[in-house]
Design brief:
single chain, 0% strand, Helix Hairpins, binds magnesium ion, mainly alpha
Length: 127
């Protein structure tokens, strides 16, 4: 996988996971890419993404995501890279678990009840 001319409609999750696995293996980093370390790395990189939006309004964040797209995309990809490596380290099939979890979320947040509401599912009014 060459890496720089792919896009979301042309690549599979497996290809991205394989690319990440090779990237890690080539640097002999597999020993460091444990579930513990990777869970922390995901949070660290998520915090770096959050830092880009610290102290701006929701409206400004929408503008910032466009005006600083590359640097924000790079932070998002840092999260994604560690997420892919976690899936490799823990042998988690992201697509199947993602769909399974989203089905659970759909039950917790039925569209007709949750539409336009941001409340946690335990606080949603079910009619
Ligand atoms: Mg980063």
């Amino acid at each position: 996988m060459s890496g720089n001319r792919l896009n979301d409609s042309k690549v599979t999750v497996k290809e991205l996971r394989d690319f990440m696995k090779q990237f890690v293996a080539e640097r002999d980093w597999t020993q460091f890419h444990t579930p513990k370390n990777l869970s922390m790395s995901i949070a660290v990189e998520a915090a770096e993404l959050m830092e880009k939006f610290q102290f701006v309004s929701n409206e400004e964040s929408v503008e910032l995501a466009q005006s600083h797209k590359q640097e924000i995309a790079y932070e998002l990809c840092d999260v994604f890279a560690y997420l892919l490596s976690f899936a490799n380290a823990a042998d988690i099939d992201l697509s199947s678990y993602y769909m399974e979890k989203m089905a659970l979320n759909a039950k917790k947040y039925p569209a007709d009840v949750a539409r336009g509401e941001y409340a946690k599912y335990t606080k949603l009014e079910k009619n």
